[in-house]
């Protein structure tokens, strides 16, 4: 005999082992919803489901929808904003789909691309009938975005749904935009995922960056450039990374102590005219890493025997000097553009790698 619950019966309400999985409630009385989780946790897929729910709800009568319409804007009219980096990340997908891992082939009309908060502001203004805007990868935008959204949400009763990372591959807050998103959000939906390590099923909330090179898993060093576009399929490359979600045990990261004890102080000295320390370190990283301070720091960062081998793999990763200089220049702004170029030319560093990693919004190569 089959088992059936009579939800009209109050006795069934006493059951505490029922988990309700509901469609999205467009009547929710909030304006900023943050959807956070590591890469691969389903943030964009969750947002795509909200869009699909809207296709059902928008067919309802005004009797039902009246309370979620203000002026011309209805919250069941959903517009999806993709980051312009998706054009590089999802080159095999049409531009009018919501792409995510393992899916995202449904074509939609209400979709656009943005590079910055001004683009987003224009898209909102250009779609006056939409009352819900999903802004994917929200932390990739400038801090101004949060204040624009906060003002618009209050003045026009717009609902903003913001799928985003909060932490980078270093397990640090992604940027100031991420911090402000947490501060101003009304609700935060936190998604987790299985640890991506083959021998683990623990839940994970961390994004792990690694390279698959010479048939080995090589963890990205702490000083790897912060923003590098990666795809959803594992590739063998020393330039483009792979991403996975990992638990604390299997999230390998090396070079943090090295960066703050050597690279950053050396760069500060360089900017003040004392160039020898940084130049010597760049030479070692680019020609014989065994002579660098990086090797010495590895010994102090190995937590156990199981981790030592995979951390040691990092010495086989090319372009360590280029990675360090990009971070010191573009992220920390310790080195000027001229400093950066002088070092690249002086030590014949790989300009092709740098051009591939830098992705200027004007489309021009750095060198």
From TrEMBL:
InterPro entries: P-loop_NTPase, Thymidine_kinase. Keywords: ATP-binding, DNA synthesis, Kinase, Nucleotide-binding, Transferase. GO terms for molecular function: ATP binding; thymidine kinase activity. One of its GO terms (biological process) is DNA biosynthetic process. SUPFAM superfamilies: P-loop containing nucleoside triphosphate hydrolases. Gene3D superfamilies: 3.30.60.20, P-loop containing nucleotide triphosphate hydrolases. Belongs to the thymidine kinase family. This is thymidine kinase.
């Amino acid at each position: 005999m089959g088992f059936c619950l009579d939800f009209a019966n109050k006795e069934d309400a006493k059951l505490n082992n029922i988990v309700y999985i509901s469609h999205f409630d467009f009547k929710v009385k909030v304006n900023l919803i943050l959807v956070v989780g590591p890469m691969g946790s389903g943030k964009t897929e969750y947002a795509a489901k909200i869009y699909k729910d809207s296709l059902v709800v928008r067919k309802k009568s005004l009797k039902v929808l009246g309370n979620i319409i203000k002026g011309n804007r209805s919250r069941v009219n959903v517009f999806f904003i993709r980051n312009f980096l998706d054009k590089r990340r999802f080159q095999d997908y049409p531009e009018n789909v919501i792409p995510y891992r393992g899916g995202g082939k449904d074509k939609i009309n209400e979709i656009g691309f943005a590079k910055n908060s001004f683009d987003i502001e224009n898209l909102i203004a250009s779609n006056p009938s939409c009352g819900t805007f999903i802004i994917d990868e929200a932390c990739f935008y400038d801090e101004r975005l949060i204040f624009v959204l906060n003002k618009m949400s209050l003045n026009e009763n717009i609902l903003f749904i913001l799928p985003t990372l909060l932490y980078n591959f270093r397990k640090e807050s992604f940027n100031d935009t991420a911090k402000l998103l947490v501060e101003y959000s009304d609700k935060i939906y936190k998604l987790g995922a299985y640890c991506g390590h083959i021998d683990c099923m623990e839940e994970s909330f961390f994004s792990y960056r690694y390279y698959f090179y010479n048939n080995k898993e090589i963890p990205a060093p702490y000083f790897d450039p912060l923003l590098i576009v990666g795809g959803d399929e594992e590739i063998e490359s020393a330039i483009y990374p792979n991403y996975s979600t990992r638990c604390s045990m299997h999230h390998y990261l090396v070079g943090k102590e090295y960066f703050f004890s050597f690279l950053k102080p050396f760069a500060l000295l360089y900017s003040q005219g004392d160039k020898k320390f940084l130049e010597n370190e760049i030479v070692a990283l680019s020609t014989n890493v065994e002579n660098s301070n990086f090797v010495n720091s590895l010994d102090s960062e190995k937590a156990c025997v199981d981790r030592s081998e995979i951390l040691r793999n990092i010495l086989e990763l090319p372009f360590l000097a280029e990675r360090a200089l990009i971070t010191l220049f573009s992220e920390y702004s310790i080195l000027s553009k001229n400093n950066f170029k002088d070092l690249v030319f002086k030590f014949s560093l790989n300009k092709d790698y740098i051009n591939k990693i830098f992705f200027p919004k004007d489309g021009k190569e750095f060198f």
